[in-house]
Specification:
The protein has 400 residues and is an alpha/beta fold. It is built from 16 helices and 13 strands. A six-stranded mixed sheet has the order 1-2-10-7-8-9, with helices on both faces. It has a four-stranded parallel sheet with strand order 5-4-3-6, with helices on both faces. Strands 11-13-12 form a three-stranded antiparallel sheet.
């Protein structure tokens, strides 16, 4: 199978230079202090359409023949490739149909439609949408634009690797990159290893859908799916043949992160880097925070934030989950006396321990003269929560 070369990537960079942004690289002071390494972010969440996918999509569209363009294009996508294809098609006056999973965030669906594409929703994950897109393509004869298993798409994504080395003055030891179907890591690894064979390429996947991890382990493309993930952008059950063949030769390691770790990373990026990342864009940060990848002292590590297209409702759920996991939000249920001042004693204990009550809901119980009190509060950490539980229990309240 044909491989992608550094020359393909340089050609792609020239092709798309007037379309895409050269996204910033930001230093992460907090992560650098935590790891004693030099941690940087490549912010593709600030790219046009909110993710790196526009690079590969526009490079592919630029290399279509006039006949292929005239038939219109069809693509399957978890959401980000959809927007890249829709934008590229709009710029070239090409009719576009995009098939997305029904679980795709509303923000991605709405944005794709805003570029003038026809959107079809099908299935739970990318693979379901792909099967539907193939079916529609056979019916319509439209030109299929694969989101990752395509030479021009991989070359387009590889331009990120060129930019990283240019912006870091070649001082790059390790690059951490999300993996879904494998397009972005195949492109970056090709560019990076050509520029410096000693650079370490580490892929990051959600443990719920470890398709590249299992493929690397078995030595062949392997389908893997446990359940859906908040990292919808990398929810791909089967990686591409082309991307796998590149990855197996160039990747140094693939690590897996859990859903709670991804949620904490999204929250960390918002608070400490003032960056909004979607779940798939936060997995590289999750790998560092969880210790799944431990940098060496003074190692120059670049984390790819692949996208920022996160639905606000999803973001809210992730933030709440992240607060709970980090011990900064705590809820419990207990019983209080159904009389004047019955709630006051409980709130006094919480106030004395500097717990900020967010909600307090009272409801009747089966016992006469007793109320059920559900309390939710802001806390500092897990140690603070244990102090609260101890004080409330010692005061005679039974915590549930």
């Amino acid at each position: 199978m044909e491989k992608v070369t550094i020359d393909d990537i340089r050609k792609a960079q020239d092709t798309i230079k007037d379309i895409v942004k050269r996204t910033d690289i930001l230093e992460s002071t907090k992560l650098s202090l935590l790891t004693n390494a030099n941690i940087y972010y490549k912010c593709e969440n600030l790219q046009k359409t909110g993710s790196f996918k526009v690079r590969g999509a526009c490079n592919k569209i630029a290399n279509l023949t006039e006949e292929e363009k005239s038939k219109g294009v069809i693509a399957s996508s978890a959401g980000n490739h959809a927007q890249g294809v829709a934008l590229g098609a709009k710029m070239n006056n090409i009719e576009a149909t995009i098939v997305m999973p029904s679980t795709a965030p509303l923000a991605k669906v709405t944005a794709t439609k805003s570029y003038g594409a026809n959107v079809v929703l099908e299935g739970l994950v990318y693979d379901d949408a792909y099967a539907k897109a193939v079916e529609i393509q056979k019916e319509t004869g439209a030109t299929f634009l694969h989101p990752f298993n395509d030479k021009y798409v991989i070359a387009g994504q590889g331009t990120i690797g060129l930019e990283i080395f240019e912006q870091m003055n070649n001082k790059v030891d390790t690059i951490l990159c999300p993996i879904g179907g494998g397009g972005i890591i195949a492109g970056i690894a090709t560019a990076a290893k050509a520029l410096n064979p000693n650079v370490k390429i580490v892929g990051v996947q959600t443990a719920n859908i470890p398709s590249m991890y299992e493929s690397m382990k078995s030595g062949k493309v392997t389908t893997a799916f446990k359940s859906t993930s908040i990292a919808d952008g990398i929810s791909v059950k089967t990686v591409g043949e082309l991307t796998f063949n590149i990855a197996k030769d160039l990747l140094d390691e693939v690590v897996l992160v859990e859903e709670d770790e991804i949620a904490e990373a999204v929250l960390f990026l918002m608070e400490n880097q003032k960056v909004v990342a979607e779940g798939s864009g936060a997995v590289t940060t999750a790998a560092i925070l969880s210790g799944k990848y431990k940098p060496k002292e003074n190692e120059n590590v670049v984390l790819i934030i692949s996208g920022g297209n996160i639905d606000v409702n999803t973001l809210n759920r992730i933030v709440v989950k992240g607060l709970i996991n980090s011990g900064r939000r705590f809820s419990f249920v207990t019983e209080i006396k159904d009389k004047p001042g019955g709630l006051a004693e409980l709130t006094r204990i919480l106030s004395n321990l500097d717990a900020n009550i967010i909600t307090a809901n009272l409801s009747s119980t089966k016992a006469i003269g007793e109320l059920s009190a559900q309390m939710t509060m802001e806390t500092f950490d897990h140690e603070h929560i244990e102090k609260i539980k101890k004080a409330v229990s010692e005061a005679g309240f039974n915590i549930k």
